[in-house]
Amino acid sequence: MGKLSFWSFFSDQGRDLPLPRESVGGQTVVIAGTNVGLGLEASVHVANKKPNLLIATCRNTVKCEQTLKITRVLLVLRERCAGIQPASLDSWPLELSSFDNVCSFVDRFDAEGPERLNIFVANAGTFRPVYTRTEDDWEIMLQVNYLSIALLSVLLLPHLLHSATCDNPSRLVLVSSLGHYLAEPVLTGSRNWDHVLGTINAEKFGASGYNLSKMLQVAFVRELAARLPSPTPLVITAVDPGLCHSSLQRELEKYCLLRMILAFVKWLLRARTSEMGSRNLVYAALARNAQDLHGRYMSSCEVVEECDYLLSAEGKAFSERLWWETIEVLSKVDDRVSQIVSTYLSAT
C-alpha cells in the first residue's frame, strides 16, 4: 500500500480497470444515486450479475422510472443480456438533502425489503459552487455527501450485519474522492474548534465544502471500521472513482468560463468515462479479498493511503471527535442511531 501521487494518478487515469467476476446471485444490493453517471453504470454491472434484488435509488419517482428503463436497455445493448427478471430490479426514491426522506427510505426497507442486505453502495453526492442550506439547516454538500450518507449507513447496519459472516462479509462502500487530499489546509487549528460539524457548516467553508465532505467520509469509514470486530462480518471501504466524465460538476457548467476550464482539465488529466470509473465501486463491492479492503481508501481498484492529516495524531483525534459529534447529531434525527451504535459497535 502506497500513497497516491500525481504521477501514479495520471498514469492510472489512462488504464483499463478490472471488473470482478464474482456473482451476486441470491444477494440484495442497494446502490444510491443511480439515475446518471457512476451510479447508473455500477447498477448495470451489478444487475448483469443477477442479484436476488437490486434497489437503485434516485431523488424522486420520475427519475426512478427513467432509471429502470435506461438500466434495462443498457443491459440488453451493452451486456448482451436478454434482460433480468422484473422482480430483481427496482428503484426507490431517496433524497439525501432531507433527513426525513432518508429515515422514510429505511422505514420502507424495514417494511418491504428483504431480510437480507448484502451490499450497500453509497454513491449519491452533490457539488455546489454557491453556499446553500437545506431545510434541515445544514450546508447542502455537508448533509448530502456526509451526514445523510452516515445516517443511512448506520440505520442499515443491522441489515448488513445480519446478512453476513466473517467468511462471507457484507459490503458498505462510500464513494469518496481524491479531493479529500486537498482538505487538510482547511482543518488547520481544528483542535481549537468548539464543534467540528458546526464550524464546517459555516458559510466561510463553502468553497472547500466538497473536499471537506469527502474527507469526512474517509474519516467516518476509518472510525466505523475500527468499531467492528476483527475479522469483520461487514467490510467498509471508501472509494475514489478517479476523475470522470460525470454529471457531478453540472452546477459548474452553468458558467461558460468554468465550463471551458473544466473541459480542458478533464482533457488534460485524461478523465475516465463514467463506466470505467464505476468499476472502482463494483470492485470494492464484490472483490474476493474483502478483509484486505476493510477500513481502507481505494483508488484505481487498489488500496492506497489516505491523506497525511488523517494518519497523524491530530487527524486521529479529529476523526474521533467527528465520529461522536456525528452520532450525537444523527441520534437527534432518529433515535434508532444511538440504539444501533450501542448494540452493534464497540466504544473504541
Strand order of the largest sheet: 1-9-8-7-6-5-2-3-4
Structural class per helix/strand content?
alpha/beta
Query: How does the overall form come out from the CA principal axes?
Result: globular
Terminal CA distance reads: 25 Å
Q: Give the ordered list of helices and strands.
A: EHEHEHEHEHHEHHEHHHEEHHH
In total, the number of strands is 9
Kindly provide the radius of gyration, computed on alpha-carbon positions and rounded to a whole number of angstroms: 19 Å
Low-confidence runs (pLDDT<50, min 5 residues)?
none
- Beta content comes to 5-15%
Number of helices: 14
What is the residue-averaged pLDDT?
Answer: 88
Helical amount: 40-55%
What does the largest sheet look like? 9 strands, mixed
Quick overview:
The chain has 348 residues and is of the alpha/beta class. It contains 14 helices and nine strands. The relative contact order is 0.15.
Written overview of the protein:
The protein has helices spanning 6-13, 37-47, 61-77, 99-112, 140-155, 157-162, 196-200, 209-226, 256-268, 274-286, 290-293, 308-311, 313-333, 336-344; strands spanning 2-3, 28-32, 53-58, 89-93, 119-122, 170-175, 234-240, 296-299, 302-305. The mean pLDDT is 88. The chain is built from 14 helices and nine strands. The chain is an alpha/beta fold and 348 residues long. The radius of gyration is 19 Å and the shape is globular.
